[in-house]
Amino acid sequence: MNKNNYFSHTGLDGSTPGDRIRNAGYSWTAYGENIAKGYTTEQAVMDAWIKSEEHCINIMNPVFTELGAAKAGSYWVQEFGAR
Description:
Blueprint: H1 17-23, E1 30-37, H2 42-51, H3 53-60, E2 66-72, E3 75-82
Antiparallel strand pairs: 1-3, 2-3
């Protein structure tokens, strides 16, 4: 997203988060994704995700047992998974 100044759960190639997670080598039975853009600190992006019902559902979902997180430029992502 950062490289292409693009912001979407759907990749430019039409891929879903599940496709990308699988292509990275993670075999999932369930997954979720939170993305954000423009926040300057971890606290700011987490506050925004917690205040957003859909994002908070991913964070609090007991099905997810693993988490990956990254930041590139002003883009933030959380990938949630269960094997």
